[in-house]
Specification:
The protein has two helices and 16 strands. Helix 1 runs antiparallel to helix 2. Helix content is 13%, strand content 23%. The chain is globular and about 50 Å long. Strands 1-3-6-9-12 form a five-stranded parallel β-sheet, with no helix packed on it. Strands 7-10-13-15-16 form a five-stranded mixed β-sheet, with no helix packed on it. It has a four-stranded parallel β-sheet with strand order 5-8-11-14, with no helix packed on it.
Amino acid sequence: MYLIYKSFYRILGSRLPLSDSRISLGAKKIRSFFARKIIDKVTGKNINIEKGAIFDRTIEIGDNSGIGVDCKLYGKVIIGDNVMMGPEVIIYTSNHNFKDTTIPMNLQGHEEESPVIIGNDVWIGSRVTILPGVNIGDGAVIGTGAIVTKDVSKFSIVAGNPAKQINSRLKK
């Protein structure tokens, strides 16, 4: 059944209009239905999967959270509650092996998967890339175009390549 629902999502659900467009044709509800059939563990209510999103069955998504337009989530990604994700975010949970210089990199396979964990009340801007094993703390903001290579502390505001803390949401 997984393959049937995944196929219908790719053919129909991922091509429906944006959830907040004037004529959405019930896109948010339809994509949420498919997500619940595709994803092994949907813990959240009121989830929003946007147009063109690609995701694996191993993701987890919490209450009031969404996957943005044309986002690509590869592997085990755990998304907390109230997470906003801008368009074209890419999240990787595995990388190529490259340490053995006597073997071409394309023949070395992949590293073991290292899940990405996104806390609650997180805002991930457009075109952010998050690399394997990163943990993003509650309340964090990731600036547009950032490449997140290391863990992000709670309530941090990070931006850049590589992403670095530029501010904090905590009052001083």
